[in-house]
Amino acid sequence: MDALPDDIENEAFSPRDRAALKLAEEMNVTNTHGYMSDELHTELSAHFTDAEVFELGMTMAVLCGMAKFLFCFDLVTREASCPVHRPA
Q1: What is the reported pTM?
Q2: Sign of the dihedral defined by the CA atoms of residues 8, 13, 15, 20, in that order
């Protein structure tokens, strides 16, 4: 199986996929300035109900929170490419 493309705008992703991926980028644990803009909400609303947008956000919050927990408690090995660095 081929790896997924890094570019959200890649045609391999449907518009619905792209909207969800954009929300994931905003909620990513390394994005300390994440924000649900009106434009992103409009894009999500074209593909998801309000309840689904809420559920996507909650799911991402749990996953990002779990990632933060793993890093804070030093329970994972950080790869060289990991954007979450251990303080010096």
Answers
A1: 0.77
A2: negative
